[in-house]
Design goal:
The structure is a homodimer.
Chain A: H1 2-51, E1 54-56, H2 64-70, E2 84-86, H3 87-90, H4 98-126, H5 135-142, H6 153-168, H7 176-191, H8 195-198, H9 201-220, H10 223-234, H11 243-260, H12 284-314, H13 316-320, H14 322-337, H15 341-344, H16 347-355, E3 373-374, E4 384-385, H17 391-414, H18 424-451, H19 469-485, H20 489-499, H21 505-522, H22 527-534, H23 552-555, E5 567-568, H24 574-583, E6 588-592, E7 600-605, H25 606-619, E8 629-630, H26 637-641, E9 648-649, E10 660-662, H27 667-677, E11 681-686, E12 689-695, H28 696-708
Parallel strand pairs in A: 5-6, 8-9, 10-11
Antiparallel strand pairs in A: 1-2, 3-4, 6-7, 11-12
Amino acid sequence: FISSQKKSSILCLIASIFDAGSGWICVLMVGIAAGATAGIIDISARWMSDLKNGICADRFWLDREHCCWSANDTVYKDADCSSWTTWPEMLGYYHQSGFYYIIDFLCYVLCAVAMSGFAVSLVRVFAPYACGSGIPEIKCVLSGFVIRGYLGKWTFVIKAVGLILASASGLSLGKEGPMVHLACCIGNIFSYIFPKYGNNEAKKREILSASAAAGVSVAFGAPIGGVMFSLEEASYYFPLKTMWRSFFCALVAGIVLRFVNPFGSDQTSLFHVDYSMKWTFIELVPFACLGIFGGVIGAFFIWCNIRWCRYRKNSKILGQNPVYEVLVVTGFTAAIAYFNPYTRRSASSLIKQLFDRCGPEDYMMDLCDYQNKTVSSDKVDDNYHTGEFGSGVSTAFYQLIVAFACKFVFTVFTFGIKVPSGMFVPSMAMGAIAGRLLGIRVEGIFGLMQKNGHTGYWACQIGKDCVMPGLYAMVGAAAVLGGITRMTVSLVVIMFELTGSLEFIVPTMVAVMFAKWVGDAIGVSGIYDAHIELNQYPFLDNKGEYPYSTVALQVMQPSGGNTLHVIEQDQMTVGEVEQLLNETTCNGFPVVVSAVDMFITGYCTRRDLQVAISTGRKTSPNVTTNSKVYFSSNVPEFDIGGSGPSPLRLKKILDLAPMTLTDQTPMEIVIDMFRKLGLRQILITRNGRLLGIITKKDILRFMKDGDSI
Amino acid sequence: FISSQKKSSILCLIASIFDAGSGWICVLMVGIAAGATAGIIDISARWMSDLKNGICADRFWLDREHCCWSANDTVYKDADCSSWTTWPEMLGYYHQSGFYYIIDFLCYVLCAVAMSGFAVSLVRVFAPYACGSGIPEIKCVLSGFVIRGYLGKWTFVIKAVGLILASASGLSLGKEGPMVHLACCIGNIFSYIFPKYGNNEAKKREILSASAAAGVSVAFGAPIGGVMFSLEEASYYFPLKTMWRSFFCALVAGIVLRFVNPFGSDQTSLFHVDYSMKWTFIELVPFACLGIFGGVIGAFFIWCNIRWCRYRKNSKILGQNPVYEVLVVTGFTAAIAYFNPYTRRSASSLIKQLFDRCGPEDYMMDLCDYQNKTVSSDKVDDNYHTGEFGSGVSTAFYQLIVAFACKFVFTVFTFGIKVPSGMFVPSMAMGAIAGRLLGIRVEGIFGLMQKNGHTGYWACQIGKDCVMPGLYAMVGAAAVLGGITRMTVSLVVIMFELTGSLEFIVPTMVAVMFAKWVGDAIGVSGIYDAHIELNQYPFLDNKGEYPYSTVALQVMQPSGGNTLHVIEQDQMTVGEVEQLLNETTCNGFPVVVSAVDMFITGYCTRRDLQVAISTGRKTSPNVTTNSKVYFSSNVPEFDIGGSGPSPLRLKKILDLAPMTLTDQTPMEIVIDMFRKLGLRQILITRNGRLLGIITKKDILRFMKDGDSI
């Protein structure tokens, strides 16, 4: 007996540990799956992206870098290796004549179009929700809005495959936003394994918040940044007790991704930056300028993109032919990008190059073609150079300007088409280009001043102690990304983790701060909020401050001459309720003691009422149109035993604790309650009597009107 | 005319920009002041701390390190330099005989006792709130509890001076917790410059949250960690929109501190760790053990400390003689610490030493006395050694064990005495000692295995690729700090910023996670929550989850036979209201239409009522005990013009929007509303009629009872 009791108590203990640990197990699984998914996507996208140029002759499953590595080619240089076969070479054209280039160009464009065409077809046929970045929708989902199937299995599979194809096609899009969506799909799918999370929307959102953090973590290799992103941008009700779990999830995902090691390197961060970069305080001026530029270009980008998306929504031709749109955009992008070395390469490798300093091994590149390179004999010390440019830098300068314009136009037209497409990397690429351009200019000015004998402040080693163009590129990337997304803390933390050095927090922060201020001052909201507004999702922004002096009475329904539709507790018949349901469209009805004195007893949703009445009619033949509906428990005697239609008892569907406020409550408090408690409606009373109702829709309309006043 | 209009619109614009920017200006000022304060405290504390040993002969205002630097002493070694004069030397004893040591010892102890005596006297006489760490109280203040004068000017001045004295006296306490309190004082003082923040408690809390972040930022040089700490630990209602501003504040404070440069070094972080440290996955086992140890020792520490604090509270002798207690504790601490090299030095320099690897310059120290040191000729590469110990390591090992025990006992008795005293650095020191001890042991085991030919996993360069005792010290510090404070994300982020390398996030996280799990499983709450409970502050924990099935009806007052005290809207006289005020102690009264039907019109606080009645009696002689009190605006005609006592109109003190809920609302929702909306009371209704009231006290009592069930 004792042993059986022991056994059961041990079982109990195990069960309670499992219950307490199920959240941890769930996020552990989510983290592992998210890391693995990200690794597979990264590897596949690289391989497919190289497929536009050629194929590994002896082992087709290798991308160019690994193909050349494994070929053990001693004369291997970045541009070429013997195992890697370009398409013209496959067709037998080895001489690099004009014809060779035409075939190369055609293959490049055709591959790109084929890939994106395949991606858009998959999305169209199997999972329409798989398009876009997904972050605006995730924001809405985490705020309590339910989009059925948005986080389902099919969306996950198609979005993953589509993302590989789309990013390989050379379209100006990033993998980062969709990665967040994919991670949330994983979180949603896994949460059904644990009933505690699968059956409770609020608990499930905890898992989804953690998943969003894991998504950013794998996208950038930034676990802390992921948590901050989830906290700042994605999550609406971020329960602090889950922060730790989110961090765990993000970290596990990051470690798994490192094991998969898609980039074949030992570095922890995506765009690893050399530690020797320095900056002086005077440089905060150009950094602030980059921030202002980021704010302006970000606002302009959002304006253009939203205009185009609105046009697409309203246009018949475009709206009904998303596949053709994708094909045309891909064709143009590929055809134009082909001719510029900076647009042709992938955005993330472009960013990596722009962030880098010019080391001795880079002096053959255009971007690092300086006069007076000083190569010190000590290998540890960095090489540096003066601010005098060679001809290569000028060439690179103009190519970068063209690249910036192309990236801008491409991305405006790309963000919103029906393939999985993110925003982060393209905007970082734009910013990195702009930053590097400014860095080169500032370097020239500093160099000129030093040459003319203005020493003092300027007596630093250009490109080492000060005016590192790579640092400008980094700051520029943060500025433009900040201008477009209006992220703040999370962006700084992500940049910090990307580059792995605390030294650069201040420049990044200055740029992001100016970008946000300028962007907000221009009055265009961030890209995600703009898309939420464009799609008219019911999203209640939880950051704004609304110093309204209005009170609830002025906002509530019914206003003016309308009447409030209520249900009387024990006095209405089934027919009357059905009539009320047919005549109105509201989602629920307050239940009152009687329509005369309007004392609230509860609230009942339309859906519950419909289900209860139809069930009642089905199960009991005596429930007819004339049956009385009872919401209280005191059903009179004569109605039960009597010969008339039997009464319908609906006490159990009545919400006995509806949220009520008086009519004099300031709207500020009302909005605060909607935000913090996630309500759908509040009943408005005066002296205990029901006056009206305020729903989430009323709040949204009020906030919009309030903005325009 | 046009120009004047222009002028006024420009003025308007400036005013609106100032209004929008005032929050930023305020946190900027807070950041600068916090950084400067921290710098001054650090420098002064160093100087005063060295004063226990001696004085700089030619320039008394220099501490030992600067004294020796500026003396340009070529034969300078760490232990001695000619300019630095110890106290026995000042008294003419140059020969290091027994008498020299006795004088040295006596001076050391006397200086320590004098300093701490001065500190405790200052606190006693001028600002009793300046004692302790302040973090438990800051948590309560940020949750809405008002402690008058807790964040005032005097508290700030006395706490700053007392902190310098107390930390110089060699007591086992840290400067970090009090730094958070000081930063919050600064925030409070500066918020009064801006009426928008000074006059609104909720807005002021935004500034205080940012200040808390700045406090941690200057304490550890960790701006991101500061924001996370403020978010996770200190702030109750952390509005996400202020996160960015908190980050700015923390960063400004950090930059200013770096300008002040109290440590005279170029490093960004307090305990800078070498980058070459590595760890292997097998080492996660000892790291997890450290975490478990941290959880156990943390819980034991809290238990001892709380027992002692409770004893102090109840004991007559101790409670009334805090000065003597401080003197005795300081005397014992100084006398015992004097004889152990690891307890004698300051805790932060001890931590720095324990975190460090054993470089070639350290091989003369006990802690780094290894056999078979391999000194490579390449200066860049790190030196390493095998796991075979010299005799110095064994000596150090036993000294460290003693040091650990001393630190533990000292800190138990120190945390809670009436001087400014923090927890962070002492607990990190304990953890670092424990970690280093384990690291040395593991190193020995690995070394033995390698010697016996067990290669494979163990074939790493001990102390370089694996088993770096410094890393164990770091992980141990995080584990014990985690066990005592139960911080999670913020602790990992702070450790990450302290050491400046992403490489160590995983070990730290594992240790912190185990420490928290074990600590929570033992069932002792974190040190701050334990002290909040000890002092019975009205703090509603916002992290726990309470799956109660109770409804509001069961918790509300009045319960059982008591009656609810209400005010009738237009029917009571001044005398009746005064009688009600005298007979009851509640903080406020619901105002109803009439006591018969109990329809709520509003809520009125006791304080407002008292003030309004006494003002009414003073200003108008016709307001007598028989005057009628009107809360509605429809005061009858006859009462105004009549000869009787003139009516008292109290409409403006009536809160027309009291929060109401029905009696069937689950307590889970009620608690949630109290937490998220920061309420003090909720009125409970049924069918529109007032039934009772639930105050914050009821909630606290209910939660406590719920725990014990």
